[in-house]
Amino acid sequence: MTQIFYSYIVKKNHDKLIKEIAPLLPADFQNKILGYRRWQDAQLSLLGRIILSQGLKKMNKNISINDLRYTIYNKPYFENNTVKFSISHSGNMVVCAISGTCDIGVDLEIINNTVKIEDYKSQMTATEWQQVMLSDNNQVSFYDYWTQKEAVIKAQGKGHSIPMQSFEIAGCKTKIDKENFFLEKIRIDQDYICHLAFKNTTDPIVLNPQVVDFSIQ
Question: What is the enclosing helix (H) or strand (E) of 34?
Fold first, then answer.
C-alpha cells in the first residue's frame, strides 16, 4: 500500500523543531539544516524527515530514518528493506510518499504565475509543449507535465542524469529504458500541483494512496 503524508511549515514552530527535533538526526543533516539562511528552507527540509518518520510509524514500519543510505545518484533509501519513499517540497508544503511494494517518486510544485514557462521549453518534448500551448491554462498545464516528469525521474532513481526531454508523458504513463512508469495526480491544495509516479505497476491498491495531513499547529 502507498500513502501520502504532507505538512505545512509554521514559523511559530521553528525554534522548537530546531531545538528538540533536529538534534535527534544525524550530524551531517543537522549541519545542512543550520546552513540555510531562510527559516522556511530549513523547516521544509526538516519536516521532510519528520513526516517520513511519522509516516513509517503510522504504517507500522519499524525503521529509523537515521538508517538512511544514498545511491550514487543521491537517491535516499533504506538498506535491506522493501520500503520505498520519496519527498518533495515547494512553497510552504512538504509531501512524503511511502510504499511497501514498489519504487515511487513524488513531485510537488506551487503554481507560480510569474514563472516564464518558455524558459523550460527545451526540457519537454515537442508533443508535450504543443499540449501546453493548446491548453486553456498554459501555466497549469505546464506544471502538470513538469511534476509528472520530475516524479518519474525520482521513481526511476537516476535523477537528472536522465534528460527531461528524453521521455514523453502520454496518458499518465511513460517508459524509460524499457521500464514502465504510471502516474497519479494527488489533490491536496488548489495552489499546488502534485504527481506520484510508480515504476512497473498498475496495482489498484497501490494507485489509490491514502493522504494524511501531518501539519503541526
Answer: helix 27-34
pTM: 0.92
Q: At what angle do helices 138-156 and 126-134 cross, to 10 degrees?
A: 150
pLDDT averages per 10-residue partition of the chain, 217 residues:
90 91 90 93 94 91 90 91 94 94 94 95 96 96 97 93 95 93 93 94 58 63
Return d(Cα 115, Cα 112) in angstroms, integer.
6
Which pLDDT does position 207 carry in this prediction? Answer: 52
Distance from chain centroid for Cα 39: 20
The reply to whether CATH 3.90.470.20 applies to domain 2-213 is yes
Radius of gyration of the chain (CA): 17
